[in-house]
Amino acid sequence: MRKIDSFRMKKIAVLTSSRADYGIYLPLLRKLKNDSFFELKLIVFGTHFSHRHGYTITQIIKDGFDSIYPIESVILGDSQNAISTSLALTCLKFADFWRDHQDDFDVVFCLGDRYEMFAAVISAIPYNIQFAHLHGGETTLGAIDNVFRHSISLASKFHFVSCTEHGKRVSELIRSDSNIFNVGSLSLDNLTNSSFLTKEKFSKKFGLDLKNATILVTMHPETYYPERNSAFVDELADVLLDLVDYQVLITLPNADTNNDTIRNRFLRLPNESDNRIRCFENLGSQAYFSAMKYCAFLLGNTSSGIIEAASLGKWVINLGKRQDGRVQSQNILNVPFKKSKILKAIKTIESNTEYQGDNVYYKKDVSSLICSILKMS
């Protein structure tokens, strides 16, 4: 393990722009908050302030994080122009924020590949902010996120990658192997260090009985080809309506280009299925992973299927191209958005026992590992 040369830090900030990255961060946030060596601040922006996406700033406060810098940067709309405008607005907001706080933090954590995160990071370059990037070096060929992810890596000083292959890609990208740490996927700490809801508690909270055979579905837009998403979601909706032996739990998509196409089609499914299919904006990390634990299998194109599901012994039908390029465990069945092929994959899963293989992203206690690296000098 390489040391961070002559770097002892105390003041840590964490950029969080959505329910998705916050859920991944959560084990690390708790470690940092409870360790007197660190002074933790959260920089909260993006869809955390969107009522449409669950106004998840309230969950952050409920979880006990009160040292918060709030930055409201969300605009309505999901067109290409709206996304581009939102990116520009986020840059403008953060230009002022970094000007006023450029000396306040030793290290600022950023995660992943979203355009909001890119905007927050890229606007800090003139201020020489020291970023630590989580989940760099990954590839998603069906989304525009590659541009953002690799740019964030180039703007960062420290790199906490999820597997060896991704570390090599970061090294090639930045033309150095300094400060690259293969720590595994932080989100997997949620599965080992957090409690799950019982089926009874989940039912009481969400009105959905997980004792019934349940498919956990999440579909995000394929942002390289947004014009195809309408046909893709129609194909998936037809599949879900045919699966009368299952109840279906859908988590609604992120604020990507053309997410409304997917969202609006999904929101019609409860009425079309006598409420056998249910849609939820935001379950929260504990409930989401509880649903994953109890579901029959996952269906869609979310990174949680690629990264977390193997650790809970779940098979995943990964649809389309959005996750193409990511390292995968052996629990993934890659299938196009075509009804006949999806139904065939479901038959394959139904004929198998629970997945018992490894998870290529797993390392023990990732949050503690990251904290120990931060303390090295």
Task: Give your account of this protein's structure.
- By secondary structure, the protein is α/β, with parallel strands linked by helices.
- It is 40% helix and 15% strand.
- It contains 14 helices and 13 strands.
- It has helices at 19-34, 57-62, 80-101, 115-122, 145-155, 164-174, 189-193, 199-206, 229-242, 259-272, 285-294, 303-307, 339-350, 366-375; strands at 11-16, 39-44, 68-70, 107-111, 131-134, 158-161, 180-182, 214-218, 247-251, 277-280, 297-300, 316-319, 332-335.
- The strands form 2 sheets. The protein has a 7-stranded parallel β-sheet with strand order 3-2-1-4-5-6-7, with helices on both faces. A 6-stranded parallel β-sheet has the order 10-9-8-11-12-13, sandwiched between helices.
- Helix 4 (115-122) packs parallel to helix 5.
- It starts with 10 loop residues before the first strand and ends with a helix.
